[in-house]
């Protein structure tokens, strides 16, 4: 595969993910475990690796410790290299003091020195909290063919859901004519995926001008893109038809994990041509006893299963004791379900123990429960 040395990736990974409640109390949303053995950020990182992007900057902010520990020097994604590689870009102090990034555009602006050092022709801007697989080479080729200044991947969403997204309206050639941020009466159902390719000289100019605007929110969707459109720049959409999910709520997180159990799921974790890489623990194989009953379940290393498990995702080191029942649930690392306990339609957080005989959730409704050490939050 040809190396994309002329395109640098900037991965925004500082989000708090407040709608995930206790799940992001001690870690950034991109570091949240997903799919039995991964973390959410692994998907954007693996897409970059598989697309042979040489340089990638990861912009962190909220609760970065576990995220930084997971990423390390990038060896799991082959980014521990002599030429190019991965850089963690955190907020820093200046002569006027230290501050948080003030928006998505400001986060990139504050790291223009990093981009200038690389001197790319194109900059790919990604979010670290989406679940999807995408070949960024195809996106870049499209960007070049259209002679675009900016290209934005979009997905077709249901019309009844369109008002929840940033909607783009285009002409017949997919050139953008208008942005609508969560419109009450959308004119199209093409929703922005929060992914952008910019020509770097234009991006740099736009960020410098935006930084000088005291009335700006310093956000790509609210400020940068509408301004470029008003200036008559060539902004195009690229239609994506694969699996994509913003796991921004407990229900969407639960659904996305259980989607992996569908053999027809477009995400396909078993695709040898587009692997999802992660930092792995050295754990023993999982164990299933004679007393256990297991069906349609993802089971990671180090699990011990002696009870009943159906349609669920078990992360590493999970223990399901004899006579315990787990159905339609996501059990995060090292959680324990004691004998006689029953868990339905739930997300059990890391190292939480469900005591003997306790019942969480119900088979009679599909409300999702988030279970931490301190409380159970019902949807």
UniProtKB/TrEMBL annotation:
- Residue ranges of domain Glucose-1-phosphate adenylyltransferase/Bifunctional protein GlmU-like C-terminal hexapeptide in the record: 292-365
What GO annotations for molecular function exist for this entry? ATP binding; glucose-1-phosphate adenylyltransferase activity
Where is the site described as Could play a key role in the communication between the regulatory and the substrate sites found in this chain?
A: 61, 100
Reaction it catalyzes: alpha-D-glucose 1-phosphate + ATP + H(+) = ADP-alpha-D-glucose + diphosphate
Which top EC class is given? Answer: transferase
Q: Which residues bind alpha-D-glucose 1-phosphate?
A: 101, 166, 181-182, 192
Residues forming the Nucleotidyl transferase domain are 10-261
Q: Which UniProt keywords apply?
A: ATP-binding, Carbohydrate metabolism, Glycogen biosynthesis, Glycogen metabolism, Nucleotide-binding, Nucleotidyltransferase, Transferase
Taking the record's annotation, the residue ranges forming a coiled coil are none
InterPro entries from the UniProt entry: ADP-Glc_PPase, ADP_Glu_pyroP_CS, GlgC_bac, GlmU/GlgC-like_hexapep, NTP_transferase_dom, Nucleotide-diphossugar_trans, Trimer_LpxA-like_sf
Protein role = Involved in the biosynthesis of ADP-glucose, a building block required for the elongation reactions to produce glycogen. Catalyzes the reaction between ATP and alpha-D-glucose 1-phosphate (G1P) to produce pyrophosphate and ADP-Glc.
Q: Which NCBIfam families match?
A: glgC (TIGR02091), PRK05293.1 (NF003670)
Q: What is this protein called?
A: Glucose-1-phosphate adenylyltransferase
């Amino acid at each position: 595969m040809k190396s994309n040395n002329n395109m640098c990736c900037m991965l925004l990974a500082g989000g708090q993910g407040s709608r995930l409640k206790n799940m992001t109390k001690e870690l950034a949303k991109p570091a949240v475990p997903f799919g039995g053995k991964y973390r959410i950020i692994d998907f954007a990182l693996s897409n970059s690796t598989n697309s042979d992007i040489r340089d990638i900057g990861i912009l962190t902010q909220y609760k970065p410790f576990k995220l930084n520990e997971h990423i390390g020097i990038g060896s799991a994604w082959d980014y521990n290299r002599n030429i190019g590689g991965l850089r963690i870009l955190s907020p820093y102090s200046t002569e006027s003091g230290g501050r948080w990034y003030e928006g998505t555009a400001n986060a990139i602006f504050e790291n223009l020195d990093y981009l200038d050092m690389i001197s790319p022709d194109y900059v790919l801007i990604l979010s670290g909290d989406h679940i999807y697989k995408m070949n960024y080479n195809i996106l870049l080729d499209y960007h070049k063919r259209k002679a675009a200044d900016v290209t934005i991947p979009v997905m077709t969403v249901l019309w009844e859901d369109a008002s929840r997204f940033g909607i783009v309206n285009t002409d017949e050639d997919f050139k953008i004519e208008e942005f609508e941020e969560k419109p009450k009466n959308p004119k199209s159902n093409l929703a922005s995926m929060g992914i952008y390719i910019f020509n770097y000289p234009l991006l740099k100019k736009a960020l410098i001008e935006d930084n000088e605007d005291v009335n700006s929110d310093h956000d790509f969707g609210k400020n940068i893109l509408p301004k470029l459109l008003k200036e008559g720049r060539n902004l195009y959409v690229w239609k994506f038809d694969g699996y994509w999910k913003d796991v921004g709520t407990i229900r969407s997180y639960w659904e996305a994990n259980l989607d992996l159990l569908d053999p027809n799921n477009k995400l396909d974790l078993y695709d040898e041509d587009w692997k999802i890489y992660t930092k792995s623990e050295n754990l023993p194989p999982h164990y299933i006893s004679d007393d256990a009953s297991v069906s349609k379940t993802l089971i990671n290393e180090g699990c011990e299963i002696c009870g009943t498990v159906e349609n669920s995702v078990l992360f590493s080191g999970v223990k399901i004791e004899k006579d315990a029942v787990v159905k339609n649930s996501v059990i995060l690392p090292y959680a324990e379900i004691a004998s006689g306990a029953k868990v339905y339609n739930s997300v059990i957080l890391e190292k939480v123990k469900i005591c003997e005989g306790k019942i969480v959730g119900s088979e009679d409704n599909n409300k999702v429960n988030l279970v931490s050490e301190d409380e159970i939050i019902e949807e």
